[in-house]
TrEMBL record:
Residues 19-309 form the Carbohydrate kinase PfkB domain. Pfam families: PfkB. InterPro entries: Carboh/pur_kinase_PfkB_CS, PfkB_dom, Ribokinase-like. This is Ribokinase. It comes from the Bacteria. PROSITE patterns: PFKB_KINASES_1, PFKB_KINASES_2. Keywords: Kinase, Metal-binding, Transferase. GO terms for cellular component: cytoplasm. It comes from Paenibacillus terrae. GO terms for molecular function: hydrolase activity, acting on glycosyl bonds; kinase activity; metal ion binding; pseudouridylate synthase activity. SUPFAM superfamilies: Ribokinase-like.
């Protein structure tokens, strides 16, 4: 399978309309290994390889959005190998895949997760050298694609120069941008100028890594969101593990939403990706920040009760049903006025 840069006149379909969402970032192979019994360091542990599937933050978010009946495209880098062919073939059912030009012959990225018997992550490894081969010029070559989208999701798999170029491009073309961190180390790839980032999603450890400070309590977490605001981010969402989600906006509104327990947790690997997809759906539909986060949590609840990184149970009907189950109501559209949300009148 030979992948090359795709130009506008080579596409089978026209560039996405403003109704489409574009995800930019990682697409790799996911391998999950479950430890039998109690995990022990410095010795051999009995295990079983559970499954092999498509992964990558941007790709997983794109598939979740596709399952939520959203029109979505994926701009990513895969190798000229069997793994890359598998990813493209499996992904095209839910999204339009636009492979980036890669210099040399790097291998497709591979993510390996080691899980305990409860499905909780112990440690993970990531072979992602392919993303270091992407240059900002490749992003600029895709300006028509980016500028035509309704919203862009960017993960932090690429280099700082590529990430900064993408943020600047979205800012110049006024394209709403969601940035999701991939890990604590890759969080540091974000530039210090974050003007143009509409929503930043990360966890506590990733925020600490980027800011260089320790966040010990709720007040320090809130103070951290204000630093991100000063750097240009409009809305900050901090995921606090399985406990809660903290959100804060430049207009001063903020809040904390606690996670709801689910009957049985099978696998948490795709939880963060599901959260981002759910919140993007909420953003696209025009919901306020609280309900944007609740859509994210509802999507997580559907995902972690299955053993798949992207759950086959994800659908619009199931998402709204889970929302109602968790929060006892259907989501309502609100109007923001002077720091408060008001429910729109029924028409």
């Amino acid at each position: 399978m030979k992948l090359k840069q795709i130009h506008k006149d080579e596409l089978d379909e026209p560039w996405p309309s403003r109704q489409k969402i574009l995800c930019i970032g990682g697409a790799n192979l996911d391998r999950k290994i479950m430890i039998k019994g109690t995990f022990q360091l410095h010795t051999s542990n009995p295990s079983s390889t559970r499954q092999q599937s498509c992964g990558g933050v941007a790709r997983n978010v794109a598939e979740n959005l596709g399952r939520l009946s959203q029109q979505v495209s994926l701009l990513t880098a895969v190798g000229d190998d069997a793994e890359g062919e598998f990813i493209v073939e499996q992904s095209r059912h839910y999204m339009k895949v636009v492979p980036l030009q890669v210099k040399g012959e790097p291998s497709t990225g591979v993510y390996t997760a080691l899980l305990d018997e409860r499905g909780e992550l112990i440690i993970a490894t990531a072979e992602m050298e392919i993303y270091d081969q992407i240059r900002p010029s490749v992003i600029f070559e895709n300006t028509p694609l980016i500028a035509s989208c309704r919203l862009v999701l960017l993960d932090t798999n690429f280099s700082m120069n590529v990430i900064a170029s993408t943020i600047r491009l979205c800012h110049e073309h006024r394209i709403p941008l969601v940035v999701s961190s991939v890990s604590a180390s890759k969080m540091r790839r974000l530039p210090r100028n974050l003007n143009g980032v509409g929503w930043l999603v990360c966890n506590q450890v990733e925020a600490e890594s980027y800011l260089g400070i320790e966040l010990k309590d709720d007040q320090q977490m809130l103070d951290a969101t204000r630093i991100f605001h000063q750097l240009g981010v409009q809305n900050v969402i901090l995921i606090r593990g399985a406990d809660s989600v903290l959100f804060a906006s430049q207009d001063g509104s903020h809040g904390q939403i606690f996670m709801h327990p689910v009957p049985e947790v099978m696998d948490v690997t795709g939880a963060d990706d599901a959260f981002i997809a759910g919140m993007i759906y909420g953003i696209i539909q025009g919901y306020p920040m609280e309900q944007v986060c609740q859509f994210g949590i509802s999507c997580v609840a559907l995902t972690i009760q299955t053993d798949r990184t992207v759950s086959e149970t994800i659908s619009l009907n199931n998402l709204h049903s889970m929302f109602k189950e968790l929060y006892g109501m259907h989501p309502q559209n609100f109007v923001f006025f002077k720091g408060m949300y008001f429910k729109e009148k029924d028409t």
